[in-house]
Design brief:
The protein has seven helices and six strands; from the N terminus they run E-H-H-E-H-E-H-E-H-E-H-E-H. The protein is an alpha/beta fold and 193 residues long. It has a six-stranded parallel beta sheet with strand order 3-2-1-4-5-6. Strand 4, helix 5 and strand 5 form a beta-alpha-beta unit. Helix 2 runs parallel beside helix 7. The mean pLDDT is 95.
């Protein structure tokens, strides 16, 4: 992956089969369609795209019993490396030149080399899409803001199992640290990048 035009990259987060299935229809199809739109716009403009996934080794040795979010995932045997459920949804499959960053926690930065990959390419602004809003999106926005990235959250290319939580986060919480835009605004935003 080459340098980022004007310092921007698109980061697609946790669009994995198991997580996508947590979003009820018709919201599931809508968020996938909007995320595809963002992905196509980035690729058409030559904007770097990175994919982030949460995956665990067989037996989930990374998950402590005190971790309330991941204890249920471990008990159900979900998101194990190499399984269909842990794979990125086919509608958003990465290209060979798009790095896939594997994380072991909620946020995209804490247990990964994402920051190093972005800085090596001169990225200073992130356009974020992901599932779920109350998980990876919130955690990543908080960490990225602390790392001084400029942030854009594509609100309708994110979703949560709880629609009200998604609404409050995108309209009130995330908007304090990021510009929250719609997928149909991304092409114009990337043209200005």
């Amino acid at each position: 992956m080459s340098s980022a035009p004007h310092g921007t990259a698109v980061v697609m987060m946790d669009f994995q089969n198991t997580i996508v299935a947590m979003i009820a229809e018709p919201a599931r199809s809508a968020v996938l369609q909007r995320a595809q739109h963002v992905l196509a716009a980035a690729r058409a403009r030559g904007v770097p795209v990175l994919h982030v996934v949460v995956q665990f080794r067989p037996g989930h040795p990374e998950v402590a019993s005190a971790n309330l979010i991941f204890a249920g995932i471990r008990a159900a045997g979900l998101l194990v490396e190499g399984t269909e459920g842990a794979a990125i949804h086919a509608a958003l499959a990465p290209r060979a030149d798009e790095p896939v960053v594997v994380k072991r926690r909620v946020g995209a930065f804490g247990t990964t080399d994402l920051d190093a990959l972005l800085r090596a390419r001169g990225v200073r602004r992130l356009v974020l899409c992901g599932l779920v809003t109350s998980g990876v999106v919130l955690s990543t926005v908080r960490a990225a803001a602390d790392l001084d990235y400029g942030l854009v959250v594509v609100g309708d290319a994110c979703a949560d199992a709880d629609d009200e939580v998604h609404r409050v986060l995108t309209s009130k919480v995330l908007a304090r640290q990021a510009s929250v835009v719609a997928a149909d605004q991304v092409e114009a935003l990337l043209a200005q990048a």
